[in-house]
Amino acid sequence: MKTLLVYGTRYGATKSTSEEIAKVLQTEGLDVQVVNAQKEKVKDISPYELVIVGSGIQMGRWVGEIADFVKKFHDQLTSKKLAVFVSSMKSVPEKEGKTKDLETARKYDLDDKITKYDLHPISIGFFGGVINFNKMNIITRKTFGSIRGQLEKDGFKQTEPGVYELRDWEEIRGWAKELATQVRQ
Q1: Sequence-distant (≥ 6) Cβ neighbours of residue 100 within 8 angstroms
Q2: What three-state secondary structure class fits 115?
Q3: What pTM does this model have?
Q4: Which domain does 137 fall in, by range?
């Protein structure tokens, strides 16, 4: 199955998440093209049976190029198998057992966007991402600075100074495998 996975990233987490999803889908027999919407403009989605849209989240916003992609191809996306995922901070409330905060984050970061853009995905992925204080602008760094101690307390380790890994790779791989099963039905 010819598949387009188009993503937008702020700090690189959605890039590596997209690459891992593509790798799993390829082992499941799908022909996957991965496109960074910030570096390459997609001109045509007609050759693809499955389109996967992925975005990083910052302050509840999708990456602008992903929003632009969805708007540009909205009519064509309605006739495709569509999957949507985001890389977010969902792992923090999840780890802390704050189910209400987790539900609010999912609604705001993912469900509201799907409704806003009138999308009808067959699969939705809500994943953790990476918090990289080194790549944040000063305002964002100050806003998120207060959570650094909480990240450590919750057991999230720095993979390098100022960078916290929040992804559950097994969850991501499992989602991709399930998506491959869904699209073959």
Answers
A1: none
A2: helix
A3: 0.92
A4: 130-165
Residue of 67, 60, 65 lying closest to 109 (CA atoms): 60
In this structure, are 69 and 46 located in the same domain? Answer: yes
b/e sequence 106-131, b meaning 16+ C-beta within 10 Å: beebbeebbeebebebebbbbbbbbb
**H helices, E strands: number in the chain:** 9, 9
Q: How many folded domains does the chain comprise?
A: 2
Write the DSSP symbol of residue 97: T
pLDDT category, 103, cuts 50, 70, 90? very high
Q: Do 119 and 59 have their domain in common?
A: yes
Closest by CA to 54, choosing from 83, 90, 89, is 83
Contact 143, 89 (CB under 8 A): no
Assign 137 a pLDDT band (cuts: 50, 70, 90): confident
The Cβ of residue 164 has, within 10 Å, a number of other Cβ atoms equal to 23
Q: How far apart are CA 149 and CA 145, in angstroms?
A: 8
